[in-house]
């Protein structure tokens, strides 16, 4: 299929729409998690990944609870806190707190152990856990965390991740770029992909959006291939969107 300048009704037929209610769901009491892609006990052959995007988990962790120490290797792991304070510890010696406005990335590489706990005793922690396949295997494990100004995403797309250490946001071992935007009702913006052959996965954090002619609601996801440009319009006040540009080849 030839690349198009924007998503239309015709091209969207070639792409993937994940409505929020179709995601996998797990409730462990202390943890409630929604899985866009196959994860743990949720296994769906049609939802193994979108390009190098392997995991998109929407997690809620109860007060004082969390994930004990557990291992990872050869994966780029990104955490995006949405509410509350998440305490992180790892085998590289890092102990830190991440909260809304912070972005955390880890290159698991040859292997790491880490734990994550809700630091608060009086509120939930809500965060996204995202796994990206790396473009290099067996790298030295590394940790990256930044705090961004939330005002810089009002009616524009704020970059939160890239392949370049000198760019805004965190960086990972992959030709990927993440942006978050928070828009007023009826505000429109466009996003031009940075690398030919990449795709883009849009995830609605809050409110309602239209991408091309496709209406999306809170926690819906849309994976788009074979386009150079997408156009997004907010259909509600304080609508918030995460755009993940990623390679389509593993």
Flag low-confidence runs: 1-5, 7-13
- As an assembly, this protein is single chain
Which percent bin holds the helix content? under 10%
CATH superfamily: Jelly Rolls
CATH fold-level assignment: Jelly Rolls
Mean pLDDT score, rounded?
93
Helix and strand succession? HEEEEEEEEEEEEEEEEEEEEEE
Overview of this protein structure:
The structure is a single chain. The protein is mainly β and 250 residues long. It has a single domain, classed as Jelly Rolls, CATH 2.60.120.10. 2% of the residues lie in helices and 51% in strands. A 7-stranded mixed β-sheet has the order 1-20-17-22-15-13-14, with no helix packed on it. It has a 7-stranded antiparallel β-sheet with strand order 2-3-4-11-6-9-12, with no helix packed on it. A 4-stranded antiparallel β-sheet has the order 5-10-7-8, with no helix packed on it. The radius of gyration is 17 Å and the shape is globular. It starts with 8 loop residues before the first helix and ends with a strand. The N terminus is likely disordered. Belongs to the pirin family.
């Amino acid at each position: 299929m030839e690349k198009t300048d924007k998503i239309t009704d015709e091209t969207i037929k070639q792409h993937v729409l994940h409505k929020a209610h179709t995601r996998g769901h797990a409730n462990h009491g202390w943890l409630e998690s929604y899985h866009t892609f196959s994860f743990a006990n949720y296994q769906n052959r049609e939802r193994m990944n979108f390009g190098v995007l392997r995991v998109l988990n929407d997690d809620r962790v109860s007060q004082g609870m969390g994930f004990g120490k557990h291992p990872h290797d050869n994966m780029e792991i990104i955490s995006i806190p949405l509410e509350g304070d998440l305490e992180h510890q790892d085998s590289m010696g890092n102990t830190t707190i991440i909260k809304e406005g912070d972005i955390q990335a880890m290159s698991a590489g040859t292997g790491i152990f880490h734990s994550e706990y809700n630091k608060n005793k009086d509120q939930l922690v809500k965060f996204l856990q995202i796994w990206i396949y790396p473009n290099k295997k067996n790298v030295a494990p590394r940790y990256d965390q930044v705090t961004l100004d939330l005002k810089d995403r009002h009616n524009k797309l704020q970059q939160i991740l890239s392949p370049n250490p000198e760019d805004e946001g965190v960086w990972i071992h992959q030709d990927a770029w993440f942006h978050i935007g928070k828009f007023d009702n009826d505000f429109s913006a466009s996003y031009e992909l940075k690398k030919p052959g990449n795709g883009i996965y849009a995830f609605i954090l809050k409110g309602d959006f239209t991408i091309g002619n496709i209406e999306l609601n809170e926690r819906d996801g849309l994976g788009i291939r074979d386009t150079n440009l997408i156009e997004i319009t907010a259909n509600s006040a304080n609508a918030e969107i995460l755009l993940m540009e990623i390679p389509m080849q593993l």
